[in-house]
Amino acid sequence: MTPMPATAAVRVRRAELSDLDDLVALEESSFATDRLSRAQYRRHLDSETAQVLVASANHRRFLGTAVVFFRKGTRVARLYSIATRAEARGKGVGSALLEAAEQTARRRRCKVLRLEVRTDNEAAISLYERLGYERIGRYKRYYGDGADAWRYEKAVA
Ligand SMILES: CC(C)(COP(=O)(O)OP(=O)(O)OC[C@H]1O[C@@H](n2cnc3c(N)ncnc32)[C@H](O)[C@@H]1OP(=O)(O)O)[C@@H](O)C(=O)NCCC(=O)NCCS
Question: Which of 1, 99, 126 to mutate to test the pocket of ligand 1 (most atoms within 8 A of CB)?
């Protein structure tokens, strides 16, 4: 893929069936453990309790994704996953996806968006803190490879 110009406008839309190949490829290239499978993505596309978002810009149909989960009876939404294509990082795609995830949570009448992040994931932590997420705790050995997670949340209502 040719480098993305820093000025390209990022759009965020709902993921469709035709995004499945890109979703699975990005998941595999972005995460070493705790990956979503193709079957799980497939289920989340049609689910009432999940929203899969996809970022695009100009003629690039697929630059990244964010997955948000909702549960009945709670106004707390959960950002389950966010990833952008390696060639597109550092250009605002992750920020656009996170803002869209917040908007989705707000539309579903959630008050708070929560997430977990590996304690050594500096790029993601810097993105969350820049967008106003506050660290609320730590889960020991949260990930499949034994890594710890920070928990973050932001009031979105
Ligand atoms: C985290 C991720 C989604 C960010 O996406 P992105 O498209 O680069 O996001 P943006 O361009 O909007 O912002 C990236 C921020 O990270 C910073 N950043 C990028 N690489 C970095 C690094 N190696 N170390 C520290 N900060 C870094 C950028 O400077 C920018 O922060 P700033 O705007 O305050 O300068 C992307 O790096 C990614 O997909 N990583 C792999 C998957 C992952 O770890 N997901 C998070 C799971 S919790």
Answer: 126
57 lines ligand 1 (CB under 6 A): no
Report CA(138)–ligand 1 centroid distance (Å).
Answer: 20
The answer to whether the CB of 156 falls within 8 A of the CB of 113 is: yes
Atom of ligand 1 nearest to the CA of 83: 39
Whether 7 has a pLDDT exceeding 60, the answer reads: no
Burial code of 134-151, b = ≥16 C-beta within 10 A, e = fewer?
A: eeeeeeeebbeeebebbb
Predicted confidence (pLDDT) per residue in 14-73, tens digit: 999 999 999 999 999 999 889 999 999 999 999 999 999 999 998 899 999 999 999 999
Q: What confidence tens digit (pLDDT) does each residue in 74-115 have? A: 999 999 999 999 999 999 999 999 999 999 999 999 999 999
Q: Which atom of ligand 1 is nearest to the CA of 31?
A: 42
CA-based nearest residue to 55, from 117, 12, 102? 12
CATH topology of domain 10-112: Aminopeptidase (3.40.630)
Q: What's the gap in Å between 128 CA and the centre of ligand 1?
A: 9
